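Limitations

Structures in this collection are predictions, not experimental determinations, and the ligand pose is part of the prediction. Treat each record accordingly. The example that follows, with adenosine-5'-triphosphate as the small molecule, is included so readers can see exactly what is and is not provided: the inputs are given verbatim, and the output is the predicted complex.
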Amino acid sequence: MAMGIGEILSQLGSIAASLMFVYAMYEQFCPSDLRKFVENYKHKFTDLMSPYIQITFNESSGERLKQSETYTIIQTYLGANSSKRAKRLEAEVVEDSQSPLVLSMDDNEEIEDEFNGVKVWWSANSKAPRRKASSGRSFDVVRCFTLTFHKRHRDLITSSYIQHVLEQGKAIIFKNRRLKLYTNNGGCWWMSGWSHTNFAHPARFETLAMEPEKKEEIINDLVKFKKGKEYYAKVGKAWKRGYLLYGPPGTGKSTMISAIANFMNYDVYDLELTTVKDNNELKTLLIETSSKSVIVIEDIDCSLELTGQRKKKKEKDHTDKNENKEKTDKKSEEEDEDDDNDDEEEEEKRKSNVTLSGLLNSIDGIWSSCGGERIIIFTTNFVDKLDPALIRRGRMDKHIEMSYCRYQAFKVLAKNYLDVESHGDLFPIIEKLLGETNMSPADVAENLMPKSTTEDAESCLKNLIQYLEIAKEKEEEEAKKNGEKAQLVAGKDKQELAQNYRMNRWRRQVKNMRNFFGSC
Ligand SMILES: Nc1ncnc2c1ncn2[C@@H]1O[C@H](COP(=O)(O)OP(=O)(O)OP(=O)(O)O)[C@@H](O)[C@H]1O
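Predicted complex:
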């Protein structure tokens, strides 16, 4: 006999009501032990029937329920994917990030991901913590991500996919983080160690004025280094690179360091050697540096104790100076020496007890104790003053000369400062003058900068030409003076030589006469 729809619905309704009643009775009156037992078997039964596996990643872990790093990395990875796919998102402002607004999946939201053609599902949930935190932050609920996948992909997911998620998540965190500038000159003798601020120098390779081939060579070297993890491991070398930047003041050594840090997305450790007490403190500071960083020692020649070759060179300079003293005007020489002594005293005061060997040991030591991915950069205005041991290949792998501004470098500055790439009349004049004068990019840049809002590019270029002409004249005068001085010295030398020659000839004649009369 056929049942009417109304009858079916009323029967279904009464079954549902009975089930709900039974469930409510079970929840209320069933002893907790029995309930646990039932739950356990219920899970076992569903696990047996379900072809899916679930892995849960909790927000907090450990005794103190600390924020789990893995959870944060997964959250970042899913954030990048879910912001495009999920409908309910949670927003958070993270201070130390370049993109401070971070979006992640909201509770009970689910998204699908695909890896090597295999589909997986991630869901965000909350649950009660298994145990209470012993101290510190306490949680009413613990948030977690659940990864669901088919059991036939277990190996792929557990070995490769999770690895992929962690790598991608870390890469996103690394890309978005704010760079830090660490310094060790806290200013107080009792405060050793690094302090940091955000690193926000705008220098980029695109705005760095130097010969394009040289720039490209450096960029290629950096790219090779960045991708070189396996290579360095294969050849058994620490994953580090040393650069020596040398050249006159204002040629862009510090600017280059900032451009390198921005290009590599590395933190900068600006090591002020003169405030480091001794070799031990230096070692500690270097060990505390993190990987993916640039360690910088500026003006290395001024910071170190006089050792080895520098000592010898100084002694030689001193002897040379004494010899010159006899040849040049005594008064001006005394004035010069007074100035030199003042400079030396000042330099001596600034020096710490870090020795060259201490620096070499510390630098070599960090590579064996801290792993890699660090770039170390020394800068100097006087490359000849440096001990060869300090800058030998292997320690300073690449020696980069930062030179005076020539035409190609000027073009970059003109583009940066005036937004002009050519000027039919003025560019050729500037090209010629830059070839005849030694002017630093800093000076060229200063002269290119408009002095008022009404000054246009052409008048800035004309200012530069005027400045270059004056500089050229000065250089020529200087060269003339030096030439005259050299001639004077050479003239005095000639007179002395002639006098010596006459004396020797006279001595020889006397000696011959003595011999002659002696033999008679
Ligand atoms: N090659 C360059 N490209 C772009 N700008 C430069 C360059 N060289 C110098 N400048 C400009 O000049 C200023 C000074 O340059 P920087 O401090 O980098 O020179 P430096 O070689 O480190 O000088 P010092 O030896 O005195 O420390 C920079 O702020 C920058 O604006």
